[in-house]
Structures are given as structure tokens and as C-alpha cells.
Specification:
417 residues; mainly alpha; Tetracycline Repressor, domain 2; Arc Repressor Mutant, subunit A; 22 helices; 0% strand; globular
């Protein structure tokens, strides 16, 4: 009995054991959510990976969406650069270090979790308001830092905090935007200089008045020509219906949340009939991706005029409109699909390379930037574009907001000009 009492006395206190268990669950959940996705990760899988029972896990996290939010808060608290933000004399450098922390070679899990947080929130009614609130707190903290450190009024500081968070959310897509730039100090230094320009000029003049209407960022591609032969014509039309159905369902429910049965039902075809046109759900995702890529105006050569940055801002603002919600969701879904499918990853990298080159040529033709840094300027633009794909969870109030367009017009020249 004395020996048993000694063992009990040397055991960690119950509160400490509880914290250790909670940490194991968070580590296991972070790994599984990053590699498999929120929807495809079961509570049982997390509990098993953490070495705990499901009822035991529920004592710490009553619901799976609460577990994901706890993982997000843990990642934020663990950010050394975020804790140091605004503590030193160089706020632009501190901001660049924050980006550099997310873009380091060993931080792929952090980048994937950031993307997955938005992706999961699209389809989860309980999770979405929690993610929006989480992002609002991050923006408010950043806005307070901007007000405290620079002569920026609260309204403009709030607008800048939106812009910086959108850019950060786009930066976490670097694995598919330009994987060679992961860990690149030149990119971090380029961001530092851009942030310094913004902080030195808190209220730049607008490039030119807003147009009456914004050009769309995506356009419907021409459908495949329908053959005159009746049987072949029916096959082409059926395939078109399948691709449209898959496009909409992948965007609305995600890859994991979409079944072949659901695609067949939406396309008004039987499952065996569907398999006469495609071999697998992954092949459908690849074809949906190819169709989506052909819709982006950025995939086509851009005008190189004196108003290039304003035209690019118009594209960003157009991607922020309510009518492009499905395409914003699909942009995130395709990036997630690239984690699983090397074929899709290669297609996505090729597509992003083409978009970046189109932006580079337009900037050079307009005399914006030197040749040696035009690649970085174009990459920063694409980061903003991908960040806007997260707008529905960063702050839905920015959708269709004229003030947001004004921020893009005024600030884009400082970021890429």
C-alpha cells in the first residue's frame, strides 16, 4: 500500500494529465485535418491517433467543429512572429516575418490547416460563423497594431487589416502557386518593401474613378461542338451535363462530400451510364479543373496599358462579387484536391504558372517594375487573387462592397507597382 501511495503521489496532477491529453488530441487532429481534410476525418480516427477513447475525447471537445477551431487557435498561439508583431521598431519587417513563418519549408501543415479551415466552413453551418468570428478577432488585433504604431485612422487601419489577411490567406497557397518560392528570403524581402510602401503612405490617391461595372473574373468557356450525328451528339451533351453537375457539386459540397451517385442524379443519368463517360471521381475532378481553368480571364494575355494595375484590381474586385461564390469555393477545392492527386497538382501548378506569366507580361508592357522582380510582383498579385477565394470566411461583408474595391484600387500599385 505504501508503494501504491508513492506511485499515486508521483503521478501528474489530474489537471496536468488533462492538458497533456488535450494536447495529444490537438496534435493528432491537426495532422489528420491537414492530410485528409475535415470532412474525411472521423472523430474515431482522431481519438485512435491520440490514444484516447471517443467518450474521453468528447470530454475535451464536445463537437468536431469545436476541435477544428481549437486546432486553429493553437496554431495562432504558436506563431512566434504573430506574438512579436508590432513589438519591434520595424512593423513592415514584422509583417513580412509573419508571412515568412507561414511560408517556411517545414510549415506545410500550417498552410494546409489554414486552407482547410475555410474549406470546411463553406459546408458546415455550425463551423462557418465560428471561422468568421475567429478571422474577425485576428483582423481587430492587426488593426489595433496599425493604429498604435502608425498615424493611420481606425477606418483605414481596418481596411488595411482586411487586405493583409486576404494576402496571407492567398500566401498559404504557395505550394501550388509557386513551390520554388517556399522558404525564399527574396519573397519575404519583397513583401517587406511592399508593406513599407503601404505604411509610409496610409491614404494613397485612387488610380482613376471606378467604372460603372466590373468585368467578370471568369467567363463561360465555349461548349464542345455538338456533332451532327444523333448518337454522338447525345453523348457529347450527356458528357457536358456530367461535367456541369460535377463542377457545381464539388464547389457546393467539396470533393469528399460529393458522391458519384449525386453527380449522376444531378446530370439525370444512371451511375452505369455515367461510367461510360468517365472512369472515376478523380478523373471527373481533373476534367472539372481543366474546365474551370479555361474560364479564368487571367489565363489569357492581359492588356499592358498605363492602367494595368487598375485593370488587375478590377479583376480582384470582380472575384469578390456574390455571383462568383461557387468559383471561389471551387478554387479552394481544387487546391485541396492537389494535395491528394499528383496529376491535379501538376495541372494546377501549370495553370498558375501561365496566369503568373500573363500578369508578368502585362506589368512589363506597362513599365511596372524591373525585370528582376516582376516575377515576385506577379506572384503577390496571385496571392491576393487566391486570398479572395477565402472572402466568404475572412469577412462576408466585403462581398459586393464598393469600399473593398476602392481598397484594392488604391493599394494594389503599392503591392505590385
Amino acid at each position: 500500500m505504501a508503494e501504491g501511495a508513492a506511485v499515486r503521489r508521483s503521478a501528474p496532477p489530474r489537471s496536468q494529465r488533462g492538458e497533456e491529453t488535450r494536447e495529444r488530441v490537438l496534435v493528432a487532429a491537426a495532422r489528420l485535418f491537414a492530410t485528409q481534410g475535415f470532412d474525411a476525418t472521423s472523430v474515431e480516427a482522431v481519438a485512435d491517433a491520440a490514444g484516447i477513447t471517443v467518450p474521453g475525447m468528447y470530454k475535451h471537445f464536445p463537437a468536431k467543429h469545436e476541435l477544428l477551431m481549437a486546432v486553429a487557435r493553437r496554431v495562432t498561439r504558436g506563431s512566434v512572429a504573430r506574438q512579436a508583431l508590432g513589438q519591434g521598431p520595424d512593423l513592415a519587417g514584422d509583417l513580412a516575418e509573419l508571412f515568412g513563418e507561414y511560408l517556411a519549408p517545414g510549415e506545410v501543415e500550417r498552410r494546409r490547416l489554414s486552407i482547410e479551415l475555410s474549406r470546411a466552413a463553406f459546408g458546415d453551418e455550425e463551423l462557418r460563423p465560428a471561422v468568421v468570428s475567429f478571422n474577425a478577432r485576428l483582423r481587430e488585433a492587426l488593426s489595433e497594431t496599425l493604429c498604435a504604431r502608425h498615424d493611420i485612422d481606425r477606418g483605414e487601419a481596418a481596411r488595411l487589416s482586411h487586405l493583409l489577411l486576404v494576402l496571407l490567406m492567398g500566401a498559404v497557397h504557395l505550394d501550388t502557386l509557386d513551390a520554388e518560392r517556399i522558404g525564399d528570403p527574396a519573397l519575404v524581402e519583397h513583401l517587406r518593401r511592399a508593406f513599407a510602401r503601404i505604411l509610409a503612405d496610409p491614404e494613397p490617391a485612387a488610380a482613376r474613378p471606378a467604372p460603372a461595372g466590373l468585368p467578370p473574373s471568369v467567363v463561360d468557356p465555349p461548349e464542345d461542338p455538338v456533332p451532327s450525328d444523333g448518337r454522338r451528339a447525345r453523348a457529347v451533351r450527356t458528357r457536358q451535363r456530367i461535367l456541369r453537375a460535377a463542377h457545381d457539386l464539388f464547389a457546393l459540397h467539396g470533393y469528399d462530400g460529393t458522391t458519384i451517385d449525386a453527380i449522376a442524379a444531378r446530370a439525370e443519368i444512371t451511375v452505369p451510364g455515367l461510367y461510360r463517360h468517365v472512369t472515376s471521381k478523380e478523373q471527373l475532378l481533373l476534367e472539372v479543373a481543366a474546365r474551370a481553368f479555361s474560364r479564368y480571364r487571367l489565363a489569357r494575355p492581359q492588356d499592358g496599358t498605363e492602367h494595368t494595375t487598375t485593370q488587375l484590381a478590377e479583376l480582384l474586385a470582380a472575384f469578390s462579387l456574390s455571383g462568383e461564390r461557387v468559383d471561389r469555393r471551387l478554387a479552394i477545392e481544387l487546391d485541396f484536391g492537389a494535395w491528394r492527386s499528383e496529376a491535379l497538382a501538376e495541372d494546377l501548378r501549370t495553370f498558375h504558372r501561365r496566369m503568373r506569366q500573363n500578369v508578368e507580361r502585362a506589368l512589363v508592357a506597362a513599365g511596372v517594375g524591373e525585370d528582376e522582380d516582376v516575377e515576385l510582383r506577379a506572384l503577390v498579385f496571385l496571392m491576393l487573387f487566391m486570398g479572395i477565394a477565402h472572402l466568404d470566411t475572412i469577412d462576408p461583408a466585403l462581398i459586393d462592397d464598393p469600399e473593398w474595391y476602392d481598397v484594392l484600387r488604391r493599394r494594389l500599385p503599392q503591392l505590385v507597382g
